[in-house]
Request: fold
Amino acid sequence: MTYKAPVRDLTFILNEVLEIDRYSNQAGFEDVSSELIGQILEEGAKFAEEVIAPINHSGDKEGCHWAEGGVVTGPKGWKEAYHAMVEAGWPALSADPAYGGQGMPAVVGMAFGQFTAGASAAFSMYPGLTAGAYAGIHANASDELKTKYLPKMATGEWGGTMNLTEPQCGTDLGMVRTKAVPQRDGTYKISGQKIWISAGEHDFTDNIIHTVLARVEGAPAGIKGLSLFLVPKFLVNEDGSLGERNSLLCTGLEHKMGIHGNATAVMQYEEATGWLIGEEGRGMNNMFVVMNEARLGTGLQGLAIGAAAYQAALEFAKDRIQGRSLTGAKSPDQPADSIMVHPDVRRMLLEAKAFVEGGQAFILWTALQADLQKSADAATAQKAHDYMGLLTPVLKAYLTDKGFHVASLGMQVHGGSGYTEHFQASQYLRDARITMIYEGTNGIQALDLVGRKLPSQGGRAIMTWFGDIDAFTAENAGAGETVKPFIDGLADTKAKLQEGTMWLMQNGMANPDNAGAASTDYLNLFGLTALAYLWAQMAKAAQAKIDAGDSDPFYATKMQTGRYFVERILPDAGAHLTKLKTGADVLMAMPAEAF
Reply:
């Protein structure tokens, strides 16, 4: 299978749906044009297709290697590909120019990120984790630390990680035991073990900058006692050169179901020298910058894996001949027809295509909100900030669920061939599965949505979002017959989401288990509404081109794919609403010993 970056789909979203040129007056967009973005994406696609994609399958087979002394090497060719990426400047694409970055908007970086994650999810995690650590340091560290560490993190010359999980605690970070002892010189001695640290050790970069959650000696138990620390693999001298090795070590690599090319490390800190990021006791607040960056990247990764799995399934389906069409042979000169003639194969491919293309638009629309948070207009910035808080758990959970679902459909299209390791269908399924778990499992994302994000600021974000959808549907109420089903479908799904929101407000407060029991179905209903909103915008843009006489088949195909979404996927909204309103009784009534 030859991976092809979805340049046409993403440029359509950026230029014709989001109309990116309209934002030239916003901070960060002053020197950005649709033409420039197109050039960046064309070059980014070539890099993903020609440098990253060819090493994906071999890297999955070989995996990473650990040796005594904590030495970790990546699969053959990966170090060279990483260096080529740094040399080409790709990690610096959206980084702050003050630290050597190119200053491109987040929406451009997220577009390129879909290419790298689709080409190789495991490879994309190395720059992805660095970007998350960079964001946390950039937002919270002292100027001294930022000046010392960010320039080489921005370029990717140095790697970065996030260290949260320990053997006794995953989601419940209040149980963290790693300790930090303050020193007279203002540093801290960090001691403890962290597990499941993606890109925790490797041979791609000269230094790795770990962001480590730890408890200062004497701090209270629980979340409020945690602080965040910068702990480098090698200490950095005043002139920026590398000094002695810090007292931290990778004691082993996890043996995983997928993402074999990424080094998932067990990290041991033995009085390692670290520096406080931000204030003591604000560790979780500061780490959330890193985690939210990672959650958006995880949603992107899950969806991008699904996109690659769809491409592979489509390529296989076009070549595979099995059986005859139900309406008569379509290739009578062949012993059988292509499986593309079978309705159920088309169902699987169209379901995959509809989720992938809707998800791509959802990612870029959300990334644009991240950029608009920097707007000089206070109302625009506040609204964008509210949307980022509200939509991050939805994007992470919904798109990773659907990315895995698409990868599973892709394997099913392959039939028995997909269950073998000869084809990449198996790798896509294995790689996609972790995205539903890390950076907060999808069930935790659903709880975060209903328990924290919805009631925040008196529900301001969700009410504003409903208002935007209402304004859009009212503005397009007179849409032509081809766009009208998209508008009607959006209005109906939004009404169901609103009904589900009211049910949560009325029943979740009285019994918190009701909110917990409803949370996953509510998040799915939210995700469907988000995709319905973006599909309606895409349909409007595509039909406008068709009405103007554009004969490019891309637009007709977009409308046909969207029609599948409206007719065959959007009806699931009703089922999710019905299920969420059943409450907690059916889940909580049975005694644990009866299971």
In short: The chain has a mean pLDDT of 96.
